[in-house]
Design a protein that fits this description.
This protein has 220 residues and is an alpha/beta fold. The chain has one domain: Alpha-Beta Barrel (TIM Barrel), CATH 3.20.20. The protein has an eight-stranded parallel sheet. The longest helix has 14 residues.
């Protein structure tokens, strides 16, 4: 894992009527990843996109597709999202009956594995799996809706996870998602996050100047 901060804009805040051109614009603006939130209306109270949409936008960019599955039971859908073009598939431990089995299912698709913790989810849920995965996604809002306010109480959990990763000398990224803006991004980095997910801030601040907003988040 490099010490560089990566920015993963969430297309949940993009204009879905021109999603393809939004993805191309994000690549030109210097995004490292494209963050794709998948919600099923069951695990979280909202519905978003499925594998078909990902398949359609996949040829438009070589950027890493960072796919966050907020769906349950998650195992049934892993193959579809991997085939659609996901580079990283992140799931919630609460969305499976066997975390190790879900990790294996994702790895079998030659895709990187992430595990996500909701604000109230305990570090213990993933502690024993850190050596098997590539990424931990800390939710700094309750998953299900864009545009929520950042919950600073998750920074302590972020520090704990970064500490465990460093202690075990693991090559695992720490990503944070939810209400990340120009004011709190430095706190997220200080806590140990090296990938920042941001939607509203990237698409709406500075009159939608994607490049400028990505740079501010990366360097603040």
């Amino acid at each position: 894992m490099s010490g560089l901060i990566k920015i993963s804009p969430s297309i949940l805040s993009a204009d879905f009527s021109k999603l393809g051109s939004e993805v191309i614009s994000l690549e030109k603006a210097g995004a490292d990843y494209i963050h794709i939130d998948v919600m099923d209306g069951h695990f979280v109270p909202n519905l978003t996109i499925g594998p078909e949409v990902i398949k359609k936008i996949r040829p438009l960019t070589k950027k890493v597709f960072d796919v966050h599955l907020m769906i349950s039971p998650v195992d049934n859908f892993i193959k579809d999202f991997a085939s659609a073009g996901a580079d990283i598939i992140t799931f919630h431990p609460e969305a499976t009956s066997n975390v190790s089995q879900t990790i294996k299912l994702i790895k079998d698709q030659n895709v990187k594995v992430g595990i996500s913790l909701k604000p109230k989810s305990k570090v213990e849920l993933i502690k024993n799996h850190l050596s098997q995965i590539d990424l931990v996604l800390i939710m700094s809002v309750e998953p299900g809706f864009g545009g929520q306010k950042f919950m600073p109480e998750v920074l302590e959990k972020t520090k704990v996870i970064r500490g465990l990763i460093n202690e075990k000398k693991l090559n695992v990224d720490v990503e944070i998602d939810g209400g990340i803006n120009f004011e709190n991004c430095s706190k997220a980095k200080d806590a140990g996050a090296n990938i920042l997910v941001s939607g509203s801030t990237i698409f709406k601040e500075n009159k939608g100047d994607l490049k400028k907003n990505i740079e501010i988040l990366r360097n603040n």
